[in-house]
Amino acid sequence: MTNHAHVKHSDRAQLPRGLLPRRRFANPDYEMKFRIGQPVTLLCTAEAAMIVGRIQIVDCLDEYIIKLVDADADPLRVFDFDIV
Fold first, then answer.
1. What is the pTM of this model?
2. Which tens digit of pLDDT belongs to each residue from 44-53?
3. Comparing C-alpha atoms, which of 44, 58, 14 is closest to residue 66?
4. Residues 38 and 51 sit within 8 Å (Cβ to Cβ)
5. Which residues are 53's β-sheet partners?
6. Residue 51: CB partners within 8 Å, gap ≥ 6?
């Protein structure tokens, strides 16, 4: 059995990368274009959809997870410029 050295909170270099918490820098004052539960239309196919999740990614791009209303499909990940 291997004895591991005790890792202090400030000594992150000893932890494997998979155990390090991801640092997320989010601006709490930033407002996204669409709300969760809001009905929208997918621009490329003109299908009705519902917003089920949203994420702000790098470069302040808004990514939304939408569920098509009349289709039995997995949720889609689209950007804010892909929906109306």
1. 0.64
2. 999 999 999 9
3. 44
4. yes
5. 65
6. 34, 35, 36, 37, 38, 40, 64, 65, 66
* Joined tokens for residue 9: 């909170």
Vertex 81 angle, CA 61 and 39, to 5°: 105
Backbone angles phi, psi at 12, to 5 degrees: -75, -15
User: Rounded CA gap, 66 and 35, in Å?
Assistant: 11
**Alpha carbons within 13 A on the beta-carbon side of 22:** 4
Which residues, 6 or more positions from 44, have their beta carbon under 8 angstroms from its beta carbon?
A: 82
**Residue 41 backbone phi and psi in degrees, to 5:** -125, 130
